[in-house]
Amino acid sequence: MAGGVHDRKRHRTRGSLRRVHFTVRSDQNKVNRSAQAALERRKQFGKRAHGKRKGFLGGSCGSARTRALAVRRRFCAAGFCQEKSCFKSSSELLLGGLTKLGDSMIKQILGRFPKKPSKSGDKDPTGRPSSSVPNPPLGPRGAERSSNLSSQPPVISSSGLSYGSGMHVGNTNSKLNGKLVQPTVELLPSFKDVPNTEKNNLFVKKLNLCCATFDFTDPTKSVKEKEIKRQTLLELVDYIASANGKFPELTMQELTRMVSVNLFRTLTTPPRESKIEAFDLDEEEPVMDPAWSHLQIVYELFLRFIQSPETDAKLAKRYIDHSFVLRLLDLFDSEDPREREYLKMILHRVYGKFMVHRPFIRKAINNIFYQFIYETEKHNGIAELLEILGSIINGFALPLKEEHKLFLVRALIPLHKPKCISMYHQQLSYSITQFVEKDCKLADTVIRGLLKYWPITNSSKEVLFLGELEEILEATQPAEFQKCMVPLFRQIAHCLNSSHFQVAERALFLWNNDHIENLIKQNSRVILPIIFPALERNANGHWNQAVQSLTLNVRKLFSDHDAGLYDECQRKYEEDKTKEKEMKLKQQVAWKRLEEMASAKATSGAAVLVSRTLPRQSSGV
Predict the structure, then answer these.
(1) Residue 460: pLDDT band with limits 50, 70, 90
(2) CA distance 503 to 495
(3) Neighbours of 205 (CB within 10 A)
(4) Where is the secretion signal located (predicted)?
């Protein structure tokens, strides 16, 4: 019965609406006809002489013009005329005024009818697409909670509003009259206070609320708003951790937008005092981001979202795209080590979950390395990027692709060039060793590349190279070792004779490795003649007692392994030493003769021709 009454009321209302619309349209037609007649009369009278225009303005026509002006004033007073000075004809004024009046009446009548629910493709007042999740029927208490959510006051952000739909517009602080306007947020209901059907909508609203950013350089500003956002972020983390259904596409879109707003920013590097050595930067205190109380939760939220089995990679890759990955990689230059640690975990999960992005991620990391090696030599996240690559290389399938070998030659090996290698050497050494373990034929390429960038004056860097060399040799097979052993042990001989005791000591420690010792013994006839002079000089004249002791142990190893070869090298060394003494003696005699000749000619007054290589002697010598 109630439904029938309601239908009759609706029918009567629609009928009255049709009658009003018909009346307005008929009035408009009458006005159109009157306007056309007035225009025709004006054209006819416009051809008369100037003196007769007085009669046109007077009489019945004048009264019509007066009435038109009166109507014009009423429309202007009612707000239908938007121009400051209106020069329209009376017919145009009447036509426009009645049209606007009719439109306003229609809008008022239509506004009394209940609006239909918006479709998935409709947009909310902010211009963003509305949620495609329908609103299912709720119980009495659920309907009350739903109305409370929809009637929430607008959340004011730094540059826009988000109304009941929860769609937030803008994410940066705006300026009003030249002053910075801090965003304000209002606490939304908890997930416990809404039914399950409304939790996803509330999740989107909370994501939009967290798009508000604050200035953390001043801890006294927006204290309440910061705490509200922090609590909301914690609720979002718990919601993702306990999710038991696939995340809809709208949720992924809004979550990645919130992450972008909070994380992607311009990194500021504080000024540092000038340092003589690059490795002095290790002694600097790391710079902590003042906004870490919020950033950490955002990172944790995004990490759990990537790890969640409810995240569909096919949908998520639309928003975690190449541009997103590049901006994520830019953050690796952050001064805060806590942020770089989170970035390392997130990028590793992204690489594992989105297979389509893997080649792009490797290429982007290559570009960061190239810029670091050949342009800036300044980057805070090289160690973390190499740590990610170490696990990636560990998963390479065999045989290795040519692309991966080029990455080794063009990116990893040249990373030995920068002076600040100590900041990332451990991760670099692990990555290179992984390549040698995957393909033993790369050992020769790696060792020769290492020798190419071997330091000359940087002793601490030289110690690092020797440690890495030991790890590489431990994974090297005899066939590859023979290809590079001659240039390798020439460099080791220089290290054995280094006046820096740590360099000489680290080189002698190579013989403590059983695998390297076996490689040396198998090729002792080539290696011992190269390093024997260095061993003898160390044993007889090195200033450090520990270096002398280690040198004697190495000599004994060679002597016990092949006494005949050792004696032969000893005799050759003595012969070379004797020849060297004879050569020095001849040089001294030659210099003495030159000095005597120069002195004799100088006393006789004759000109003395002296080679440019000889020092000039005074006449009194």
Answers:
(1) very high
(2) 6
(3) 25
(4) none
Which of 29-43, 77-91, 164-178 has the largest mean confidence? 29-43
> What are the tokens at 190?
């908890």
Q: Strand, coil or helix: what is 14?
A: helix
Residue written as token pair 């026509």: 61
How many Å apart are CA 531 and CA 568, to the nearest integer? 14
Contact 240, 308 (CB under 8 A): yes
Instruction: Please compute the mean of the pLDDT values over residues 494-500 and round it to a whole number.
Output: 94
Residues 299, 346 contacting (CB under 8 angstroms): yes
Distance between CA atoms of 90 and 17, rounded to whole angstroms? 29
Give the mean model confidence (pLDDT) for residues 209-220.
82
**What amino acid occupies position 140?**
P
φ and ψ at 161, to 5 degrees?
A: -125, 150
Q: How far is CA 472 from CA 373, 402, 438, 469, 531, in A?
A: 22, 21, 12, 5, 20
For the beta carbon of residue 520, count every other beta carbon within 10 angstroms: 25
> Residue written as tokens 């416990």?
192
CA distance 171 to 210: 9
Q: What is the mean pLDDT of residues 579-596?
A: 90
Rounded CA separation 436/442 (Å): 6
Tell me which residue has tokens 């600097």.
284
Exposure string (b/e) for 558-571, b if CB count within 10 Å is 16 or more? beeeeeebbeebee
Peptide bond into 533 cis (omega under 30): no
Query: pTM of this prediction?
Result: 0.65
**DSSP conformational letter for 286:** P
Q: What is the DSSP letter of 206?
A: H
